Amino acid sequence: MSRLVVVSNRVADPRKTAAGGLAVALAEVLNKSGGLWFGWSGKVIETAEGSAPGEGGLHRQQAGPVTLATVDLSREDHDAYYLGYSNGVLWPVFHYRLDLANFDAGHIAGYRRVNQLFARRLMPQLLPDDVIWIHDYHLIPLAAELRAMGCTNRIGFFLHIPLPPPLILAAIPAHDWLMRALFAYDLVGFQSEADLTHFTRYIQSEAHAEDLGQGRWRAFSRTLTAGAFPIGIDVEEFAGLTAAPEGRDMYQRMRDEYSRRKLLVGVDRLDYSKGLPQRLRAFRELLQRYPENNNSATLIQIASPSRETVHAYGDILRELESLCGSINGDFGELDWMPVRYMHRTVARKKLPGLYRAGRVALVTPLRDGMNLVAKEFLVAQDPADPGVLVLSRFAGAAEQLKEALLVNPYDTEATAHAIQLALQMPLEERRNRHQALMATIRRHDVHWWCSEFLDTLAETQARESGTPWLRL
Ligand code: GDG
User: Fold this and answer.
1) Using CA atoms, how far apart are residues 282 and 276, in angstroms rounded to an integer?
2) Is residue 172 part of a domain?
């Protein structure tokens, strides 16, 4: 069995349960092969401490059979690669938000510099038979940099966020460089069929790629396989958290506290892609249009802090606070606050109890690669009396979770109406929908996702080295 090398921006210690389902699933495959997990250490070294752009020390640490290898970043590299390009250009554009992108020319140079640094540090760690799996938008050009150094290993890439249509991608200066770099991979995986279609349309129209059939494409003298691999969650792990003492205790506390209310829950990183202001407007519309919900429907919205040093995140925070304040001000009673908003990270083991107490989950992103909260909510439900998932049609999860109530989050009235339907839904319909959704979630869990991707990668054809076309 080949050794697996996982590369991602951040590395999680797989022995810590707080790491979550993805880390647990990757750790399982890494454990089996005695693998290596490589990425940024999370540490930023200030210039005063002698760090130079493009440089960063390597740390190695053993986590059972898995080796964790991490690199520090200089302040300049971190600001350009992480804040500037990854989260200031790629995140907004890939979520269709050209208006929020900052195409400062210095950022892409830093992005490439860090990918080159990663390649230089990773290359000496590699064994000839290693299979390399690179994750997400921070590291798109990494395989190309490795190939330029002579790496001939099998390399796969998975994009956790959406890929927008070709015309939106084309707004990125140097988009051709970025997309060409994907051809250094043997396998490129997306969350949904929609993302895959955007990719194949782009490479056909912009790179005249040749369709070789069965997901194989040829361009720039290289062949890659592209496919959709919708990510799942570790169902057993999350069901275990739900049944654990903390999970049950949290559930009981929420049930007691909200026994006279109908509880709605929202759990998101505070990000403009998650559609939080639109969600709150729909909730306000619900209270206005369907007054029977007054003094009853209560929305607990957790917005965990995220990327606070990126400019656009401050704006969304202020907008959200003002909306919550105005809804509570306009509709609240002495003994009832319609919105409980928390700008805080809640301990992972408390989430299942909160989900289970929710009659309705509001998962209404404007755009999302997949959205794991939708799946976690469903796993945490009591199958005999389950809550209802209101899900944006623009989440990757909507391609799979067809029995949820699918909404257009930009349509305030229709979303409010769907929430009302969810609150009123008879038990039998709730059970039927939940049962069908759980069958999908179980079939396509995170273990299925890992093995489906890695099996497909193993089947890709012999690789070619060298990337003479990699000029920025
Ligand atoms: C990216 C893509 C794709 C949230 N708040 C708290 C907390 N969470 C946990 C949830 C869930 C995870 O974070 C969020 O996952 P999502 O999938 O919803 O979203 P992103 O973070 O944007 O992830 C996304 C994903 O990658 C995987 O490929 O699905 O589309 O954007 O697990 O439970 N966890 C804790 N406290 C919180 O306050 N402990």
Assistant:
1) 10
2) yes
Same domain, yes or no: 156 and 271: no
The verdict on 362 and 381 lying in the same domain is yes
- For ligand 1, pick from 16, 233, 351 the residue to mutate: most ligand atoms within 8 Å of CB: 351
Distance CA 459, CA 98 (A): 37
- 221 and 249 in a single domain? The answer is no
Largest CA distance in the chain: 70
160 Cβ below 6 A of ligand 1:
yes
Ligand 1 atom closest to the Cα of residue 160 is 28
Shared domain for 88 and 160, answered yes or no, is yes
208 is catalytic: no
The active-site residue out of 130, 368, 417, 434 is 368
Domain match, 56 and 176 both: yes
Q: Using CA atoms, how far apart are residues 357 and 381, in angstroms rounded to an integer?
A: 8
Q: What is the reported pLDDT for 468?
A: 44
Q: Which domain holds residue 316?
A: 235-442
Q: Is residue 250 part of a domain?
A: yes
Whether ligand 1 lies within 6 angstroms of the CB of 161 is answered as: yes
- DSSP result, 373-417: HHHHHHHHS-TTS--EEEEETTBGGGGT-TTSEEE-TT-HHHHHH
| 452 and 435 co-located in one domain | no
Tally the domains of the chain.
2
Rounded distance between C-alpha atoms, residue 434 and residue 380, angstroms: 11
Atom of ligand 1 nearest to the CA of 162: 30
293 and 416 inside one domain: yes
Nearest one of 372, 378, 413, 409 to 394, comparing CA atoms: 409
Residue 311's pLDDT is 72
Residue 75 near residue 15, CB atoms below 8 Å: no
CB of 162 sitting under 6 A from ligand 1: no
Look up the CATH number of the domain holding residue 416. 3.40.50.2000
Rounded distance, CA 275 to CA 70, Å? 34
398 and 358, same structural domain? yes
Distance CA 430, CA 455 (A): 36
pLDDT, tens only, 6-61: 999 999 887 775 555 577 778 778 888 889 999 999 999 987 677 788 888 899 99
Per-residue confidence (pLDDT) for residue 55, from 0 to 100: 86
Looking at ligand 1, which atom is closest to the CA of residue 376? 33
What are the tokens at 386? Answer: 């389950």
Residue 464 lies in a domain: no
Strand ranges of the sheet holding 58-63, from the earlier edge strand across to the other edge: 58-63, 66-74, 36-45, 4-10, 131-135, 154-158, 187-190, 222-228, 216-219, 210-213
